[in-house]
Amino acid sequence: MQTSTTSKLLVSDIASSVDRVPSSYIRQISDRPNISDVDIFGDSIPLIDLQELYGPSRANIIHQFAHACSSYSFFQIKNHGVPEKTIERMMTVAREFFHQPESERVKHYSADTKKTTRLSTSFNVGSEKVSNWRDFLRLHCLPIEDFINEWPSHPVSFREITAEYATSVRALVLILLEAISESLGLEKDRVSNTLGKHGQHMALNYYPPCPQPDLTFGLPGHKDPNLITVLLQDEVSGLQVFKEGKWIAVHPIPNTFIVNMGDQMQVISNDKYKSVLHRAVVNSDKERISIPTFYCPSFDAVVGPQQELINEEEDSPAIYRSFTYAEYYEKFWDRALATESCIDTFKISKT
Ligand code: OGA
Ligand code: NI
Predict the structure, then answer these.
(1) What is the DSSP letter of 27?
(2) Which atom of ligand 1 is closest in space to residue 258's alpha carbon?
(3) Which residues contact 96 (CB under 8 A, 6 or more apart)?
(4) Ligand 1 in contact with 203 (CB < 6 A)?
(5) Does the beta carbon of 258 sit less than 6 angstroms from any atom of ligand 1?
(6) Which ligand approaches the C-alpha of residue 282 most closely?
(7) Atom number of ligand 1 nearest to Cα 278
(8) pLDDT recorded at residue 2
(9) Residues 191-219 pLDDT 10s
């Protein structure tokens, strides 16, 4: 019997019935996850222990932040204060969500990138030409009471567990923002103060096993548009970070989060901390779940390089003009290619 894949909205509902990747997922040869471009033995991203952040070694830890943010823009953190139980419950409920019958999941489906709660697939079905081997549930979560009633009500504990997780990760983000602000030589509340009322979104990414993982991506190389991302991943590898011409595989370490800088941090820091390319590859035998928290300015917040990081005389002029995050976010979703960065649109042209 032939199974029709064209009528399916989600890749989860195609994956189990095909032994080849449908043609709409196949990338050109020059644009595939080529194993010889990946550094599997060498470099890894830094791991920062936050245990002593509020003790006598704070200055040393802030120094580690400065190094990690300026050299990698990606690092892992341990002893981060988010309870193990909260993490475990979040991962379990995310898995349960994606294991529900198709009829239950598709109730949340939408291709409208403006919706504050939606299930979708690939990256942006409205603009892309090649699909990606990923489904995702995207949720706005700050303030929680404004959005919680839109979130899925099945599994029955979904809202409670997700709210607990989002609250706990937000507290961690605020600690990270202070440390990052200090590491830039700014007052500790400066970065936080540039974000207006603050925004927090989450994605629950679900990557089903893929019969031909070398032909497609879970997520192609991209930079995050937000300020800072705190990523939780399960025990299956897939994340890769681009550094000096090579992709570095970031293998999961239990009870750590991965933190990366997004485009807004690059603008605020006037290019001191760059937003870095990263991607997710899939594999043929295991599903993979990752849960990024995207922390961002509120849509009305005006973002621009901080005055202290600009010095016209010493040849470090402002690289970007100021803009509202709403303006940026719209450009981000409008691009045809996920790999295109929109930060350049906001650069001040040198005349
Ligand atoms: C993202 C992302 C990486 C991953 O959702 O923006 O980069 O490992 N995810 O799923
Ligand atoms: Ni990303």
Answers:
(1) P
(2) 8
(3) 155, 158
(4) yes
(5) no
(6) 1
(7) 7
(8) 47
(9) 999 999 999 999 999 999 999 999 999 99
